Amino acid sequence: MATGAGATSAPNPTAVDRSPVPTVVRDYLTLTKPKVQSLLLFTTVTTMYTAGTPAISRVLLTCLGGALSAGGAGAINHAIDRDIDRMMTRTADRPVASGRVSATAAIAFGTALGSLSFLLLALTVNPLAAALSLSGLLGYVFVYTLWLKRSTPQNIVIGGAAGAVPPLVAWAATTGGLSGMAFYLFAIVFFWTPPHFWALSLLMKDDYARAGIPMLPVVRGEDETRRQIVLYTVLLYAVTQLPFCAGGLGIAYLVPSMLLGGVFVYFSVRLLRAADRRWALRTYLFSLAYLALLFLSIAIAANV
Q: Which end of the chain is more exposed for a tag (fewer CB within 10 A), N or C?
């Protein structure tokens, strides 16, 4: 029997879940936002090898602590945003939004992960790394999710500081302190976040509008969002030259940073001129590759 718009299909009693992972385990794993974490962990590893030559055990413990912290923040975010997640096509089937996991359980799970992260990093790495990781979790939950996300189109600009914490954690884990280079890496991720996320928000404008979230394309329009992407990409290009200008990294970093930055600026300008979804998607996808390749080049340049 055909189903029309708004209808729900009856469950098929003969259907079998062929996944070897139980649904409840998949749901709790989804709460931690593993896809988002992968890039954060990559910047953590490359930063650690930029800062020094840490033991493999320290790298693994730092990554585990970072994953627990980011996962805890993600789980709490799922609980807080469950109302707006239900209104958006991309997020409607999330575990809390769909009702498969209760908000109370998600918050308890996220709090447990965050607490475990702090204890793990404080006891096996160092207290500074633990405190910085906790600050990232608290910033994401209280500053971005609870305050900025629903109140200002600059939410991702200011809130992006929480996502830029992993390089600081990694540097502290490796050296026991922070230096100018650590803050340069923080700034790179900070200025990368707006053009990366705004490219995605152009693709999701209707979802954000339906949910009442004041993302830049909804409040200021798509044209202004594209102009802001160009502006922040140029600012990002300038920021990425600081490690070379300050003498921290040499020509082995300067060349790839200029090439990658030039391509990113090209994508953003093409997006401004083309004003279509195809270039928004291309810019978003390139931004992911850009950050990974840039941090890889930083680690290589620091060890040649």
A: N
